[in-house]
Amino acid sequence: MRCFTSGLALLVPCSALWAQFAVSDLPRLRNFESERTSSFDRSGGNGDYRSLKSGETLTLFDEKGPAEIRHIWITMSTGEAYHLKKVVLRMSWDGEAEPSVEAPIGDFFGLGLGTSTVFQSALLAVAPDQALNAYFPMPFGRRGVITVTNQGSQEISDFYWNIDWVKLPALPENTAYFHAQYRQCTPCAGWYKGNFYSNNFAEARGDARWKNKSGAGNYVWLTAEGEGQLVGVTLSVFQNQWGGLERGR
């Protein structure tokens, strides 16, 4: 049996600034300055992209706060298979030693199997032609940095991005920051070695391990301390048991 499992837990500490406002809030004026950081052609031409060679790191965002990121859009062109598992996305706030986000770019945007699928949700969306969108509010006080690293073997010839953010006069005292944890197991070792194809698990049910009272060997979604809000989990599974190739997310 071959099995691959990956999970991305998204954690927004409590009292975060929610970026998307209701229509009824539109007439209310707010004290901020809208900004955009993007891959636009600085020469004034139409080459609104960057190349990303194998092993290279590209900085998408490096701005001073106080501020809040409100929308991230990314798309890319490459011939390498499963490149969404091979580009690592990192986000750091206020000069921290370890990034608050470090995950394959596909998993961050809900595409944990390395291929593109169109879907839409309140905080993540993938449009046709692999347009990756995230709407999580991401405030920071002093500095925010976002990078991508190409760990694949081929160059990404066209890498595009737009990051919409706002400059703020200050962050409220109860503001906390966005985090995401990535985990995977390849393969995910199981304990039952019998015949999966018969769907007869009488032998397995007779094993003491069928009821795992201790939790030993369970897959860990998230390890965190302090106050916060878990806003979502992306689970991706690839397996080839039970009579054929099965994929699920």
Total count of strands: 16
Order of helices and strands: EEEEEEEHEEEEEEEHEE
The H-level CATH homologous superfamily, spelled out, is Protein of unknown function DUF2961
Task: Report the sheet-strand fraction.
Answer: 35-45%
Helicity level? under 10%
State the domain count.
1
Q: What structural class results from the helix and strand content?
A: mainly beta
CATH C-level label: Mainly Beta
Tell me about this structure.
The protein contains 2 helices and 16 strands. Mean pLDDT is 86; it is low at 1-5, 13-19 and 243-249. It starts with a strand and ends with a strand. The chain has 249 residues and is mostly beta strands.
Properties at a glance:
disordered C terminus; eight-stranded antiparallel sheet; 16 strands; mainly beta
Give a topology summary.
Blueprint: E1 3-12, E2 33-38, E3 50-52, E4 57-64, E5 67-77, E6 87-93, E7 101-104, H1 105-108, E8 119-120, E9 124-127, E10 131-134, E11 138-140, E12 143-150, E13 156-167, E14 179-185, H2 202-205, E15 229-239, E16 246-248
Antiparallel strand pairs: 1-14, 1-15, 2-13, 3-13, 4-12, 5-10, 5-11, 5-13, 6-7, 6-12, 8-9, 9-10, 15-16
